């Protein structure tokens, strides 16, 4: 479990630590990574800075993907509609050597490594940025895998903004871990449903 300090008050930090301790006491394996520094609690908020920078960066990635990506095929459009995407005609598939992450920014790279998003031995095969789905070359994006990513597109579409989606994703990740977080549970259910 990662403790992602979105808020800067000590009550939130104490609550996050207590959640980790309760889960440990209940026998749940917990890896606590407290990402809040004393400076963050005192008023500076590097996590909020990270989120703002990541969101701005992701918007440029989506714009690039819209320019260079491939529209969905008729079969893929049908799947996107069935999943509930309101504007499936906007979805683009972008095939790349590596799914992008802002490694050029030292702070974002370090947080990404701390969260396990990037680093040695970590391969990101596909990721949705707005209406674009970036796929690593060599990854077989089959129907279940595409359905999983289309669910993320639908989740983003249902959110008030991409920023709200990212904040919710990070909060769920910190509270539930990747496997049990509701956004991923919904996406993984599509892997099974659309075999």
Offer a quick outline of the entry:
The protein is an alpha/beta fold and 195 residues long.
Report on the structure:
The chain has about 200 residues and is α/β, with parallel strands linked by helices. The protein has 2 domains: about 1-45, no CATH class; about 45-195, no CATH class. It has 8 helices and 6 strands; from the N terminus they run βαβααβαβαββααα. The strands form 2 sheets. Strands 3-4-6-5 form a 4-stranded mixed beta sheet, sandwiched between helices. Strands 1-2 form a two-stranded parallel ribbon. The longest helix has 23 residues, at about 45-70. The relative contact order is 0.14.
β-strand number: 6
Strand content: 5-15%
Mean pLDDT: 81
Shape: globular
Indicate how many domains the architecture comprises: 2
Largest sheet: 4 strands, mixed
Total number of helical segments?
8
Distance between the termini: 30 Å
How would the blueprint of this fold be written?
Layout: E1 2-3, H1 10-25, E2 33-34, H2 38-41, H3 46-68, E3 70-71, H4 74-83, E4 92-96, H5 106-115, E5 126-129, E6 132-136, H6 143-158, H7 162-180, H8 182-193
Parallel strand pairs: 1-2, 4-6
Antiparallel strand pairs: 3-4, 5-6
Question: What tags apply to this protein structure?
Answer:
195 residues; alpha/beta; two-stranded parallel ribbon; 8 helices; 56% helix; 10% strand; globular; disordered N terminus
């Amino acid at each position: 479990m990662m403790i992602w300090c979105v808020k800067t008050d000590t009550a939130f930090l104490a609550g996050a630590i207590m959640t980790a301790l309760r889960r440990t006491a209940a026998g749940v394996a917990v890896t606590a990574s407290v990402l809040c520094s004393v400076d963050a609690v005192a008023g500076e908020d590097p996590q909020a800075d990270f989120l703002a920078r990541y969101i701005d960066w992701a918007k440029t990635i989506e714009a690039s993907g819209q320019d260079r990506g491939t529209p969905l095929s008729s079969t893929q459009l049908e799947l996107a509609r069935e999943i509930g995407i309101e504007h499936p005609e906007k979805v683009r598939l972008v095939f790349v050597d590596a799914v992008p992450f802002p490694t050029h920014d030292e702070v974002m790279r370090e947080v990404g490594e701390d969260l396990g998003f990037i680093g040695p031995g970590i391969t990101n095969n596909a990721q949705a940025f707005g209406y674009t789905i970036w796929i690593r070359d060599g990854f077989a994006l089959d129907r279940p895998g595409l359905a999983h990513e289309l669910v993320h597109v639908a989740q983003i579409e249902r959110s008030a903004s991409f920023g709200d989606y990212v904040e919710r994703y990070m909060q769920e990740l910190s509270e539930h871990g990747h496997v049990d977080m509701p956004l991923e549970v919904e996406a993984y259910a599509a892997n099974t449903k659309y075999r």
